Amino acid sequence: MSATPFLNDPQVPFLRNGLWHLYYLWNGDYPNSPGGTAWRHAVSPDLLNWWDQGVAIEKFTTSQGDIWSGTPVVDTYNTAGFGAGAVIALLTMPMTGDEGQSTARWVSTDGGYTFSFDRIVMTNPQAGTDSDSKDFRDPRLLWMTNERYWVMVLGEGNKIGFYRSANLADWTYMSGFMCDTLGLLECPSLFPMVQHDENGTAIGTKWILLCSANGYQTGFTTGAYYWTGSFDGTTFIADNQAGQWLDGGSDFYATAIWGPKATTSTPQITCYAIAWMNNWAYATLVTKAGYYGRMSKVRKLTLKTVSGRARLSNDFYTLTGSSSFAYTVAKKQTLTPLSPVKIPTVSRGSYRIDATLSAASGSWPSEIVVLLQSGAGTPIRLILSPQSGNVNLQRTQSGFTPATTDPAWASDRNAPLTFGQSISFSARINPDGLEIVFNQGALSLTSLVFPTTTAGAASITTSGGGVLRADIKLYRV
Fold first, then answer.
1. What is the structure's pLDDT at 4?
2. Choice among 9, 135, 247, 251 that is catalytic
3. Distance between CA atoms of 193 and 202, rounded to whole angstroms?
């Protein structure tokens, strides 16, 4: 998935003949004319290693403009009439007339390696009106297993629309979910999951409505936001109008969600997520650092009960039994303000740290500072505050800074973090970004950083009393 120059939104992957198929928006002409995006294709046997398959849908091959985000599905029951097992992609096209953003159907009969344009199946009903909502985009699809029809969710400005169809062509509007505090709602997903209580026992099913959105009104930037609730096949009702952020960082956008049992209404214990590691506040500016976008590591989602509320756990996806060489940095090592832990330099600047920190004497230090460096003198600062139950991520000194007055880059990222007797984290540090997961998925932070090319050492220091005990392993990536 490393093709350049510019990539963004991932589409929902599907599994066929033992391979996962992932498409993403790709602009091979960036920054030159004619612009626009194609669907580039990658495959993986394990959701960890990906191989580029080239462009599956070229841009500007029809009179309707280029192609934007959507969803490919395997039409197992031949609902669209192109044969059982055909791959049908519904996606947004901007159109060249007065139709506005519209939903197009593309068809593949070779397993998803090439697609042909079929037709426009739905145009924007607000096009040509005085409505403020000109957005009608990013269709996501869900197969209703018992009812045997398709549900489509669409981003429509500050509304998510729900539609149904028996043939992936003729769509009927069912209902809409409104949210006035998150700006433009993009890349929506609807999926059911099994909920577990605090002891890990299954206690029922919740439906989850997720979208990528703007959090400036709540002191956030952009990211993946979700609500838990119920869905009766027609209408989604949220448990609470105030939803939750899936990731606490600045660069986890256009998130695609899917499950091992495909995108169906069958409740799943585990779902997967992948996101575009970037932010439209500075996405074109960071190309000056040689960064043209990439995807996050695949995440494993489970639905847990936390303080009486259903909450998605967002952990790294790994294969059972997989392992790699680890260097033990600390084993039950005691940390005080005068005895920090120094983590050895990794020459190529890409590494992973797994750490468990515990309050050795029952009292936490007032502050724990973790410096994660893939460039000498350009650290990513993580400030853990046990007394306030907070983690703060700072990247203003982490190297290249895009020339923007938008606060999205410079603002600290703050997120709540529960400190019991111990906390754990797993951090993936690369020359262009950080992905970190705390407490096996209770919190994740994903943010871009562009440090110097000379590798630097990481460290953990404490202040304000309290004795910390640390177990730390270092993995070369």
1. 61
2. 9
3. 10
Range 20-26 average pLDDT:
97
The predicted pLDDT at position 321 comes to 59
CA–CA separation, 39 and 55 (whole Å): 6
User: Which structural domains are found in the chain, ordered by start?
Assistant: 6-316 (2.115.10.20), 326-476 (2.60.120.560)
d(CA 53, CA 56): 8
- Would you say the C-alpha torsion 159, 160, 164, 168 has a positive or negative sign? positive
- Find, among 85, 86, 83, 88, the residue nearest to 57 by Cα: 88
Q: Which helix (H) or strand (E) holds 407?
A: helix 407-410
The length of the chain is 477
Long-range contacts of 151-154 (CB under 8 A, 24+ apart): 151/190, 151/233, 151/265, 152/90, 152/103, 153/188, 153/189, 153/190, 153/209, 154/103, 154/188
Please report where in the chains the tokens 């607000």 appear, as a residue: 126
* Token couple for 47: 């959701």
Q: What is the pTM of this model?
A: 0.95
Q: 3-state class of 371 per DSSP?
A: strand
Rounded to 5 degrees, what are φ and ψ at 283?
-60, -40
Task: Say which residue the tokens 């779902």 belong to.
Answer: 271
Instruction: Tell me if residue 9 is catalytic.
Output: yes
Q: Give backbone dihedrals phi and psi of 397, rounded to 5 degrees, phi first.
A: -110, 20
